[in-house]
Amino acid sequence: MLNNVKKDFVSWIVITGLLLLLLEVSFFNEGLIFSLLASGAMIYFGRSSMPKKSGKVLFWAGLFFFLSSVFSMMTFRFFLLAVLVYLAYQYAQSKKKPEVITPVLQEPEKAFSKETVIEKPPLFNNRLFGHQETPPHVYEWNDVNIQTGIGDSVIDLSMTMLPKGETVIFIRNIIGNVKIFVPYDLEVTLRHSAVIGSAEVFEHEEDRVVNQSLYVQTPGYDEADQRVKIFTSMMVGNIEVKRI
After folding, report:
1. What is the pLDDT of residues 179-192, one digit of tens each?
2. Which DSSP state fits 108?
3. CA dist 244 to 62, 128, 141, 180, 189, Å?
4. Helix or strand or coil: residue 214?
5. How many whole angstroms separate alpha carbon 239 and alpha carbon 244?
6. Lowest CB count within 10 Å: 13, 48, 51, 163, which one?
7. Contact, 141 vs 162, CB < 8 A?
8. What positions does the domain DUF7649 occupy (predicted)?
9. Could you give the angle at the alpha carbon of 196 between the alpha carbons of 37 and 21, nearest 5°?
């Protein structure tokens, strides 16, 4: 019963927040979308101009205006108030009805029924800020599936031995660039989406990607023994896939 109440509360918070965001953008703060896009563009062009002083100034100014726009939103204040109310409610419930944990004794399973798993260290980790890239020496490959905030990601597939079949790279980014270097005999497919940025995949170039999705594939992908499938999505940034 309590779990249903929690789910209903969260669902209503999300629905109400979306309605408030729609009302705020439509009637009360029509310039919000422009200010977010403008600050995003400042961050993008500022990063592109780094380490020049003008690039740093433009980047940090854009980040300041972006955060100021978010913090001034009525929707953000609503979500902040909703979180405080939810935490207060949870605290009151824990005092009223403290959770009682009753141990459940089970007979140990037979040794032969247990399944052994092997944990492998990932090549990349989820990061809010920072630059990540594959080692400059030969390394063991693991499929990539990460979410990052602000920063670049560089993957060099020429320094590893890829397994037979399909290799997957999945990167979700807010602000930053993604560069992937692939050997000449490797077939590639790319699904990319961005709000603002550019895309360069071998000979295919998109100088301006504005709220677009891009899907490209090399001719021999379906028949290749080794192939890599790349999924990237970002708010502001560039994607580059090059032969090496």
Report:
1. 999 999 899 999 99
2. P
3. 35, 29, 17, 10, 17
4. strand
5. 16
6. 51
7. yes
8. 12-88
9. 40
> Who's near 14: CB < 8 A, 6+ residues apart?
none
Is pLDDT at 2 greater than 50 in this prediction? no
Residue type, 10: V
- Which two structure tokens, joined as six digits, stand for 2? 């309590």
Instruction: Give the tokens for residue 158.
Output: 């020429």
Tell me the C-alpha distance between 157 and 188, whole Å: 12
Pull the structure tokens for residue 77: 């204040």
pTM of the model: 0.57
**For 161-172, what is each residue's pLDDT tens digit?**
998 889 999 999
**Token pair 């603002």: residue:** 196
**How far does CA 37 lie from the centroid of its chain?**
18
Backbone angles phi, psi at 198, to 5 degrees: -145, 165
Q: What is the token pair recorded at 109? A: 């399973």
For residue 26, count other CB atoms closer than 10 A to its CB: 9
**CA 8 to CA 94: how far, in whole Å?**
19
Alpha carbons 67 and 47: distance in angstroms, whole number = 17
Neighbours of 212 (CB within 10 A): 14
pLDDT on residue 114: 64
Rounded Cα distance between 230 and 190, Å, is 5
Q: Is the pLDDT of residue 33 over 90?
A: no
Locus of tokens 């779990």: 3
Residue 104 carries which DSSP code?
-
Q: Reduce the DSSP state of residue 27 to 3 states and report it.
A: helix
Q: At 35, is the secondary structure helix, strand, or coil?
A: helix
Of 172, 178, 124, 125, the closest CA to residue 147 belongs to: 172
222: phi then psi, degrees, rounded to nearest 5: -65, -30
